[in-house]
Write a structure and sequence with these properties.
By secondary structure, the chain is an alpha/beta fold. It has three domains: 28-92, no CATH class; 116-128 and 136-371, Aspartate Aminotransferase, domain 2 (3-Layer(aba) Sandwich), CATH 3.40.640; 381-505, Aspartate Aminotransferase, domain 1, CATH 3.90.1150. Helices cover 34% and strands 10% of the residues. The strands form three sheets. The protein has a seven-stranded mixed sheet, sandwiched between helices. A four-stranded antiparallel sheet has the order 10-11-13-12, covered by helices on one side. β8 (330-334) and β9 form a beta hairpin. α12 (360-396) crosses α15. The N and C termini lie far apart (58 Å).
Length: 518
């Protein structure tokens, strides 16, 4: 399949007002000329007019303390509603997003977010409730959280779940706090946590944040943990080992049970960074592998939007011995009712790590996805994610160096070292892909692979989309061989071309600095 034709610098016509359609910037290269909202200001051109107050209004000085009073009215522009809507509709199309094109970020798992999830989250019974309402009025929400809790228990193979963490890194923080509380309850807090050199950068950051010493374990030539290095690092000062399985290399750690036995042999806990759970659901359970703690990214595995799309959620599943330390409040089912566990009922709890119960809107969206797919559908989700990744790997390894040759799970890592020899970096390839309507894969990660391209197609993409991506990558490989300047000068079809990234970082301007409005 050939990709959509993309203009090169030799054939691209300059963008002019004459080449754009009358509907404001059909040519994306003109869209950077869209004015700021403040520049649409026209005195008296307001889209909203309020009637005069029909009740006496107290002077502001009586209603508010002086420190809260403005010295002047805010510089809100006078603009008609139609202009506002059109302005924001135009600029909404500038950024690349999942509803616009393929987004194969490795490890980040940027899959399509079904719109039914948002419809369910917008139901009045979910959207309009307040967490401080009486328990009798929240039983439906509590039921959803409890059923989500039970589903995640089954998926993880562990004994209990905290829904409070708001992201994967937040889940890591909870996992390490639970680790500390567990060892302190035994009278020996310990001081070290092991982590692999292919781990997410948040792992060592979290370890240090909680006050542990980071000990890095090298990856072997096959991409698996070097068991000899692990053996040398293990002693009774080790509190836990954090590991991602499948790893960020897209490889399943076949010796995981042996690793678990080694870690448990010195009394330490085994923590799973669950960012790659998209490859395991319905196929393998972390608890059965020997993990004691596991965070689960609802915003990766179960289609809750993340990044610019909204808040995430990173529930943490644990073994029975860690349950007393879980955060409160949490929900338990007692008889036919759902009960809020309070601090008084959990004296060993580490306390609250999030307001109320966690990101409830995220719970509704992920719960909807799980119920729509069912047990068999979730099983097929992981299988298709693995199939899609291996389909891409089998095609792209013909033109790019494959970092590790094992059959991959849900993602894989290429290396652009051969292209670098010809003057093209993977950052150039990333920019060129935008001309094909494709977002870049993750680049320069994992750090142990030179010129890394980390690719994850997920299960939500059709074969036609994957074929388009393959064809685009093949064309770029051809351009590197024959006309590398095409790649290093890209992109050509985006609202902005290449920026001076160093200058942009040093001279960042993030607010409007025009003349203040009256």
């Amino acid at each position: 399949m050939s990709p959509a034709p993309v203009q090169s610098p030799e054939t691209a016509a300059p963008a002019t007002p004459q080449t754009a359609n009358a509907g404001w910037g059909a040519d994306p290269r003109l869209m950077h000329d869209e004015p700021l909202i403040f520049e649409y200001h026209h005195e008296g051109n307001r889209g909203l007019a309020l009637p005069p107050l029909d009740v006496p209004a107290p002077p502001l000085a009586q209603a508010l303390p002086g420190v809260a009073l403005r010295g002047a009215l805010p510089a809100i522009p006078d603009i008609g509603e139609a202009t506002v809507v059109r302005h924001f509709t135009r600029i909404s199309s500038l950024n690349f997003h999942l509803d616009k094109g393929f987004y194969p970020l490795g490890s980040c798992t940027m899959k399509y977010n079904p719109k039914i999830n948002d419809e369910m989250a917008a139901l009045p019974g979910f959207q309009d409730i307040h967490p401080m309402a009486p328990e009798e009025g929240l039983q439906g929400a509590f039921q959803l959280m409890h059923e989500l809790h039970e589903t995640l228990k089954e998926i993880s193979g562990l004994d209990a779940v905290s829904l409070q963490p708001a992201a994967g890194a937040h889940g890591e923080l909870l996992g390490m706090l639970l680790t500390r509380a567990y060892h302190e309850s035994k009278g020996r807090p310990r001081r070290k946590v092991l982590v692999t050199d292919s781990s997410h950068g948040t792992n060592p950051a979290t370890i240090q944040l909680v006050g542990y010493e980071v000990v890095e374990i090298k990856t072997g030539p096959d991409g698996d943990v070097d068991l000899q290095k692990l053996k040398e690092a293990l002693d009774e000062d080790v509190a836990a080992m954090m590991i991602t399985n499948p790893s960020t290399l897209g490889i399943f750690e076949l010796k995981i049970r042996e690793i678990a036995a080694m870690v448990h042999g010195v009394g330490a806990l085994l923590y799973l960074d669950g960012a790659n759970l998209n490859a395991l659901v319905g196929l393998a359970r972390p608890g059965d592998m020997g993990f004691d703690i596991c965070h689960i990214n609802l915003h990766k595995t179960f289609t809750q939007p993340h990044g610019g799309g909204g808040p995430g959620a990173g529930p943490v599943a644990v073994r029975e011995m860690l349950v007393p330390f879980l955060p409160v409040p949490r929900i338990e089912k007692r008889g036919e009712r759902y009960h809020v566990v309070t601090p008084a009922e959990a004296p060993q709890s580490i306390g609250r790590i999030h307001t109320f119960f966690g990101q409830f809107g995220a719970f509704v969206r992920s719960y909807t996805y799980m119920r729509m797919l069912g047990r068999e559908g979730l099983y097929l989700m992981s299988r298709r994610a693995i199939l899609n990744a291996n389909y891409l790997r089998a095609h792209l390894e013909k033109r790019f160096k494959l970092a590790y040759r094992q059959t991959c799970m849900h993602e894989f890592v290429l290396s652009g070292v051969e292209q670098k020899k010809k003057g093209v970096r993977v950052s150039d390839i990333a920019k060129r892909l935008l001309d094909f309507g494709v977002h870049s894969p993750t680049v320069y990660f994992p750090l142990i692979v030179e010129e890394a391209l980390m690719i994850e197609p997920t299960e939500t993409e059709e074969k036609k989309t994957l074929d388009h991506f393959i064809a685009a990558m093949e064309q770029i490989a051809d351009e590197v061989d024959t006309s590398p300047a095409i790649v290093t000068g890209s992109p050509y079809t985006t609202p902005c071309g290449r920026l001076d990234e160093g200058r942009a970082a040093r001279e960042l301007v993030v607010r409007w600095t025009g003349k203040a409005l009256p």
